[in-house]
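Extended Data, record Copper transport protein
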Amino acid sequence: MEMPPGPMPDKSMNMMMQMSFYWGKDATILFYGWPGNKLGMYVLALFFVFLLAFAIEVLSILPDVKPTSTKPMLGALTQTIIYTIRMGFGYLVMLSVMSFNLGIFIAALAGHFVGFFLVKSRALAVPKPTETTSRTAVIPKV
């Protein structure tokens, strides 16, 4: 059988990508050779993915800030920048999880969990005006 034209595969480029979840500190996350095979660097990678996922949840509430009426373009630009940063972080978390390392997957889930919990608990703690607090009862004097 004849080989197709094009570059021949090099035996030194024998890189196999993991295609199922696995445990272990030997992983390649985002960049070739990172975090390496040292436990400290792996823990740093877990913390980095956790922070990225946490930041996504925190940044998800910032676009709700209303632009000022005096400078609507500045408000729109601010919201666009925050959205772009959040999407960039989202893609980095997605690429990290695609390493199929179970520790990285759990760190990403934990970051989203903690971030969502803190953001939503703060939002629920703010009292919302109700009908009874917005109206004042007028009691006629006798």
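Summary. Residues 35-72+95-116 form one domain.
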